[in-house]
Every structure is written in C-alpha cells, then in structure tokens.
From TrEMBL:
It comes from the Eukaryota. This is Methyltransferase. InterPro entries: Put_SAM_MeTrfase. Keywords: Glycoprotein, Membrane, Methyltransferase, Signal-anchor, Transferase, Transmembrane, Transmembrane helix. GO terms for cellular component: endosome; membrane; trans-Golgi network. It is found in: Membrane. The keyword Calcium does not apply. The chain crosses the membrane at residues 20-44. It is a single-pass type II membrane protein.
C-alpha cells in the first residue's frame, strides 16, 4: 500500500480498479501504428496479388471473376456503338465512322450469349452445314434476295441448283455448280451501276492504297486481281494505279493477265519523292500505336479458334520497349469474338503466359499451360484455353 499511496489520487483510483487511463499521446501513437500496419499490408498484398498492375485490370484480382455485361449487350461492338455515334457530328458523315471508347471507358465485363443461343456447328463441318434452329428469319432474307438481286438471272439460276437443303434441324449447303455459267461479266457491269467505286484513286487521292500500306508489313505483297488491271476500257485507271504504287515505293513483281503483284519495301522508304499525290512520311510526333489496341469491328461469337503467336509484341513494342496494350483488354476482346466452347492458343514469354493464365481464369476460360516447341529454346510457353458456355442469370 505504500506504493499506491505515493500516486496521485486519479492514478490511484485507476490502479485500484485494474484499468489504464489512456492519454491523448497514447491514442495518437496507437492510430499511427495501426495506419502503418494497414499500409504495409496493402502494399504487400498488391505486390503479390495483382497479376496486371495496369489501368484496364484495376478491378481484376487473382481469384476474382469478371462480371457479365448487361443482357442488352449481347451484340456489343465497342467501336460501332450507335448510342455513341448518335451523339456525334453529322457533318461529312463523321458519325458513321468507327469511334472507339477511350482507354478505361469500356466496361470490364464479359459479353453474354443471347437467350436461346446454341453452340454452332464446329469447323470443318461448318463449311457446308449450319443449325436451322433459331434462324427462321433466313427464309425471309432469301426471299428478299431473290426479288432484289441486281442481276435477276442469278436468283433464277440459283433456284435450280439445289444449293441448300433442309435436313432435320440443319441447313446443308452441298456446293458444286456455279452461279455464273455464262461468266460474271454481266453481273459485274450491273454492280458497277450501283457501286461505281472503280479503283478509288481519282476520287480519294489514293487513300485506299495508303490504308493498305499502313496494314501491310514491310516486305509484304499487294495483289490486285480484276479491274482495273489490264481491264478493257479502264486503261486510264490502270495507269493511275501503277503511278500510285510507284509513289508508295512499291516494287512491281509481275503482271499476269488481270492480276498484278507488288512488294512493299523492307528498308527505308523512298519518300518523300516527286509525284502527283503529295505523299510523305508521317511526322515523328505521330504515335504509330495510337490505334493498336482498338477492338475489332467483328461481331461477338464469330471465331472457333484464335491463335495469338508472340503476344508479347501486343503488350510491349519490341523496338522501343514502350507499353502498347493492356493484356487484360486484349484477352477481354478475344473473349468477345470467340464463340462459347471455342479455343484460344496463346504463345509468349513465361511472364506473359503466367499473367495470361490468371486473366483467362478470371474470364471463365478453362486453361492448360504447356512447354513450347524445342526450337523456342525454352523461352516460350503455350497456353491453350477453352471458353466455357455460360449463361447470364435471368433477372426477375
């Protein structure tokens, strides 16, 4: 009791009651320690648990599934969305062009199959056979096609060829024969009255070929077969086409009949040069990867198989080392255009395949990872995944 008697009265009461009186400084220190512990826990969890620390995958974590999109998004085409186009300018039909959502704007969700969807006939049977269930509209389309074909004899001759048969729940396309027993010249001439595009050089200043050049890899081949290549009454257009390929520095490989082949140069282009089209190299300030990561103008559930070879180059520019696409966004787009029970084969480095495997599981794919071929020198892995056939839960 001698010790207790030496304490102040307020401390003596606390000691006798067995409690501890917290001071303001004690509370501050406790809050600080808790904050430090929470901060370290968050940093440690992110370093180990986030497979793709990038904007598009910010909401995806290991073990977390990507949610389905709304039922109204079964036919989603991100860059062909009429809801976005309706808010754009009508001048020069600007609203009719592709307009993709900005990075981070597209919802991170899986496009669901429509109600009543059935897995289509797999390849190669699908070459001549389709399911007849749920496509009753096709009979209406065929009827309209017979009435409004630009060249009437096609519909007349097509009806006697037995080109389509109905067997059980399938439509069978036997093949054989031709729609043009007398040649297609009349059909092409008729089409030209409705679609007078010719080769597009005069009216577009070669913009079509400039776009082809953008898509074609260095050393690739451009093959044009048909008009205006040595086509009767199109000598002027043929000359302009040749002038345009020369302006693009393409090398003429051969002209055989109505088929012409050019090769795109591998080394530095001959641009700028003296020609009538005013072509020049793009500015070094232009981003060559600006449209690299845009979604395709492809309907959902189109492909049976997607083979992504060297997916590393989609993620990082092999020359500059700069980041290109978010792996999560790439695989989300693959899921959109891959049909249920379709297969994706992805080749890449060990690190990329490890991340791809984690993303694949989050988008409901069944995944197997294999060693690549011996020629790869153990530098690659092979991911083989199957998209599962899931259905969006019905809402009451």
């Amino acid at each position: 009791m001698g010790l207790l008697s030496s304490l102040p009265p307020h401390r003596r009461r606390g000691a006798l009651s067995g409690g501890y009186q917290w001071s303001f400084l004690d509370v501050v220190w406790a809050v600080f320690i808790v904050a430090v512990v929470v901060f370290l826990a968050l940093v440690f969890t992110r370093a180990r648990g986030d497979p793709l620390p990038v904007p598009g995958a910010a909401s995806v974590r290991v073990g977390a599934g990507v949610p389905p999109c709304a039922a109204s998004e079964v036919d989603l085409l991100p860059c062909e969305d009429p809801r976005r186009s309706s808010r754009l300018s009508r001048e020069m039909n600007y609203y009719r062009e592709r307009h993709c959502p900005a990075r981070g704007e597209a919802p991170a969700c899986l496009v669901p199959p429509p109600r009543g969807y059935r897995v289509p006939v797999p390849w190669p049977e699908s070459l001549h056979k389709v399911s007849g269930v749920g496509i009753g509209l096709s009979t209406v389309i065929m009827h309209l096609a017979r009435q409004y074909m630009p060249y009437g004899k096609i519909a007349e001759r097509k009806g006697h060829q037995g080109w389509m048969k109905h067997e059980g729940s399938y439509f069978i396309f036997p093949g054989g024969g031709t729609m043009f027993p007398d040649g297609a010249e009349q059909y092409i001439e008729k089409l030209s009255q409705y679609v007078p595009l010719k080769n597009g050089v005069l009216r577009t200043d070669g913009s079509y070929l400039i776009e082809v050049d953008r898509l074609l890899r260095p050393g690739g081949f451009l093959i044009i077969s048909g008009p205006p290549v040595r086509w009767k009454k199109q000598e002027k257009e043929w000359g302009e086409l040749q002038a345009m390929t020369q302006a693009l520095c393409y090398k003429s490989i051969t002209v055989d009949g109505n088929t012409a082949i050019w090769k795109k140069p591998v080394e530095a282009s001959c641009l700028p040069n003296q020609h009538e089209f005013g072509l020049d190299l793009c500015s070094t300030k232009d981003d060559p990867d600006e449209a690299w990561c845009e979604p395709f103008s492809t309907y959902p559930r189109t492909y049976d198989l997607i083979h992504a070879n060297g997916i590393n180059s989609l993620i990082i520019d092999p020359v500059s080392g700069k980041s290109r696409c978010d792996l999560f966004d790439v695989m989300l787009e693959m899921d959109r255009i891959l049909r249920p029970e379709g297969t994706a084969v992805i080749r890449g480095s060990h690190d990329v395949i490890s991340k791809a495997s984690q993303v694949a599981q989050s988008i409901r794919w069944n995944v197997k990872v294999h060693d690549s071929e011996p020629e790869s020198g153990d530098s690659e892995k092979l991911l083989v995944a199957t998209k599962t056939f899931w259905k969006r839960p019905l809402t009451s």
